[in-house]
TrEMBL record, chains A, B:
It comes from Panicum virgatum. One of its GO terms (cellular component) is plant-type vacuole membrane. GO terms for molecular function: voltage-gated chloride channel activity. This is Chloride channel protein. It holds the Pfam family Voltage_CLC. SMART domains: CBS.
Amino acid sequence: MMAFVVYIGCNTTLAAAAAALCAYIAPAAAGSGIPEVKAYLNGIDAHSILAPSTLLVKIFGSVLGVSAGFVLGKEGPMVHTGACVASFLGQGGSRKYGLTWNWIRYFKNDLDRRDLITCGAAAGVAAAFRAPVGGVLFALEEVTSWWRSVLLWRTFSTTAVVVMVLRGLISYCRGGHCGLFGKGGLIMFDLSSRQAAYTAKDLAAVMLLGILGGLLGALFNFFVDRILRVYSLLNEKGARSKIILTATISVITSCCTFGLPWLTSCTPCPPELAGKCPTIGRSGNFKNFQCPAGHYNALASLFFNTNDDAIRNLFSAGTDREFGAATLLTFFVTVYALGVLTYGVAVPSGLFIPVILAGASFGRLTGALLGSISGLDTGLFALLDAASFLGGTMRMTVSVCVILLELTNDLHLLPLIMLVLLIAKTVADCFNRGVYEQMVRMKGLPYLEVHAEPCMRSLVAGDVVSGPLITLSSVERVGTVVETLRQTGHNGFPVIEEPPLAAAPELCGLVLRSHLLVLLQGRTFTRGRAKAGAAEVFRKLAPFDFAKAGSGKGLKVEDLDLSEEEMDMFVDLHPITNRSPYTVVENMSLAKAAVLFRGLALRHMCVVSMTQRRPPVVGILTRHDFMPQYIRGLYPNTIPR
Amino acid sequence: MMAFVVYIGCNTTLAAAAAALCAYIAPAAAGSGIPEVKAYLNGIDAHSILAPSTLLVKIFGSVLGVSAGFVLGKEGPMVHTGACVASFLGQGGSRKYGLTWNWIRYFKNDLDRRDLITCGAAAGVAAAFRAPVGGVLFALEEVTSWWRSVLLWRTFSTTAVVVMVLRGLISYCRGGHCGLFGKGGLIMFDLSSRQAAYTAKDLAAVMLLGILGGLLGALFNFFVDRILRVYSLLNEKGARSKIILTATISVITSCCTFGLPWLTSCTPCPPELAGKCPTIGRSGNFKNFQCPAGHYNALASLFFNTNDDAIRNLFSAGTDREFGAATLLTFFVTVYALGVLTYGVAVPSGLFIPVILAGASFGRLTGALLGSISGLDTGLFALLDAASFLGGTMRMTVSVCVILLELTNDLHLLPLIMLVLLIAKTVADCFNRGVYEQMVRMKGLPYLEVHAEPCMRSLVAGDVVSGPLITLSSVERVGTVVETLRQTGHNGFPVIEEPPLAAAPELCGLVLRSHLLVLLQGRTFTRGRAKAGAAEVFRKLAPFDFAKAGSGKGLKVEDLDLSEEEMDMFVDLHPITNRSPYTVVENMSLAKAAVLFRGLALRHMCVVSMTQRRPPVVGILTRHDFMPQYIRGLYPNTIPR
């Protein structure tokens, strides 16, 4: 009883500390982080996602959360951590503290910064699973929205470095002076000794596993979605309610993990393992718990172990008798339910470990039940069902396959893993979306999907550009520019060459708010409406001044301090006008425009008119114009929901 | 002597047969086929690349070529074969013979057919190396130009099926009744028993391997390029000269493989292998050749073996004494030279096997020389140098890495393979391009590169649209349409809505030549200039009639048989006009337009005017407008070569 109080106390304290970090310092650090990174790489430039504070909270919160005994993984947070580190580097250090390097200037643009962050995410996966190729594929399959062939090579180099560093650390730690880290080599669950010879009957069993995994995975996603909706209501009430929620879940978790083993009967140790069973030390397979000497508690052996060791136990061959069906069923139900309950509390929490644990225990259970039909090892069933659960929840194929191979080093199993993944993904796709996509949607982030929504097919680009179009003249009065920037929140403005500079109104290009602000601060103004020339502007400002600022460091309109006299002068926008804006004609199908917008990773797209009668630009499309909610708001009646 | 004559006679006959097949039936079947598939998937819709005749010649030519003892691989041809089979399926069977299925209609468009062919290429690699994940990655990294996330999942399913079928065949053939195929499991060179523990010294040796592999790989590419230029002069002279060239190379190959072992001294068999050495049977490691009993000829053991067995021998651990330094050097030089000489003869020939053989022998040689410095096994050196040669010639990273892992099943080597590949690719990239890119360029195919050429940066889209723009009215006289189709070779025409249908000229969209021909054949004409309406057209023609025809089956202008009276009637182009053409403004940077054009996989792009003074469309950009040669022809003086 005393032990229980200490156990529950420690866990709840750790959990509350993690929740406090998340709630007060960086709310963006809660959860897996993979949906956020996915959203960032889709072009959603939300500051908090990759801020340094998020990074710190993610690291420490994850450590606290794992220590608190929650059913959660460290893999998702590691992906987020990797992305945060990359983003921190990509901001080019800090000008304030003189920590800038010249080479780091190359990342002062969206494209390269995005590549860097993709590499960071790949490095996170590579480090979490010690799976370099899996990391590359995870970044490509799940995280990025835009794939370029150089990206493959860049992520590959990153993970090569990661694996070299990991290998160095492991060989340094082999002596055991880094705690648990030193244990095990580069391959976490080396099962390569097993020979897999399978028959048609086994294939049928594997297919059944795939179907069950797909169903349970889809169900998991459904529950996670519902729970997150409930939690978000609670979390909205403030930081305190977040901490209380986390502490409650922690208490429930502790009760389950500590209480359930009491209900299990003790098993006598197998005689051939006299020295090793039961283990009292820190990590080992046969936990004594409440049992008399020479016996072990199977459920406690699963719960009171590191997650890695629990998974290794479940995957191992030849341990059929160690865990009975009742133990496995209890463990599966507990992990599945706690996995659903835990995700969404204000703690950095990954989904990989809960899903793998649930899948492995369910697989062993199925294996034990199907023992008469299939001759496959139950450990193999555990591995395959872990694959099928991963496929059912996350809907990844190649990357999960390679990650599992890199975890277990057993290439003979490749055909079976591929089969089970394909079936699980196909089955689960009939019910709902992958868990990460679902979370991106639920967070309300303006994520651009690969495929256009059906409602866009019946609309054209001109239909959704609404409100008066705000354009600037190619040589504009300073006051007008400042006023425009103050009164609108737009980030891009079309520039029109007007008489007397042109015979008829002519599209000159597009200027960005951030460039306008830098130009205005440079104060290259003229008295009359005349071209100043680029040479004049670049005498005062270096091209690098226009580079993308680090997070939250950009200029604001309020920072400008212009005199009345300056406000009446003119500024030449030609030097900063992007003369090659991407355009679509006004009766371009909205669905096609959406695919184009996403495919080119744009932020603004000009809609040009098709006829000579009207001015050259009709409007500007931004990300928000492609959001289904917005379109449904504009055309509520004509579009089926 | 008699044996030599028989040997050389057999080889030359087989070689000549293969060359005759290629020269007379399908010249497109010569060579590796990977550059051609790459070009097709870049949007170059050349009929012969994936024609059924190419498929047949590729299969039989490859069998003959490998049997003829050439230093060439079957892997490249298998990729091409896979793509051809996919293309054949994707054409929807044959309407002529009633072999059509409804579901196959889905492939009657460029996008899906391209996906199918990518899957075919992936299946080819998966079958050739028994490497399903490697196949997926190869298709993504090397073959496709456009990557979509569904493609990952599709190629993965394909290779999963491939590996299941392969496994079934292997287990069926285990009894040995399929010749050499039954030998070996799904993993071709299983080396998993080896433990790799490496030190800093070993890493230095591995880096050296990477640098040497990069240099020799780049040199290989250089030689292949030169040799191909020489051969193409000979091959242009006709089919007979192709056959003579092939026969000559065959004689040289036979002389080398048969002659060189005579120069080698015999090695006594190691005493512990009394029963196995020398082998007289079909496949084995210790070939007797001219040696007395109890001795073997090391060089003959490499030459007179299947390529697979030769590679397995070189990769194996613990055979340090089997092959001496002189043997390895001779073998390396011969294979390297013959590999260069053989590629480019009119025989289906892959590059993987020669490169792996050269790399493996060079690696063992280096390993033997560095034996005092590095403690790594020479078999491991062979594997790593094979990786470095592959990286140096083909410049692939992730896919080569995964293919090698799937070939050898040794995940412990992953960090070393990654390192060596990265170094080799980086070194080789300093000198020239990858061998496949080089060949695409040399064949003069209008391949669109990922990055725009530097000469495009100083030009705008309007600069390269040349010649008079041919437009059609939205309701056009039949005679005019026919005349336009006869007199120009264009495949797309802008449609302009003109008075009286519109107040001012207005861009209506784009029509395709193939759609115009189908519409004209449908004969939905009106007497006066009036809209006929889509309903009228689609009463006569099903939407499927407009689907992309199979290879070479499309309509031609000459096939139309219209009377004089019909030629004076009008045809409404609205139903077949693509009202959402992709457009760029005329002063869009040409480099950006090129990236857009390639990124969206377009065939036509309208250039619209920026001002109200001019008609809405200025010109049409096609693939050829982005070719550097064309641009240099237009602006020879202003653009540096």
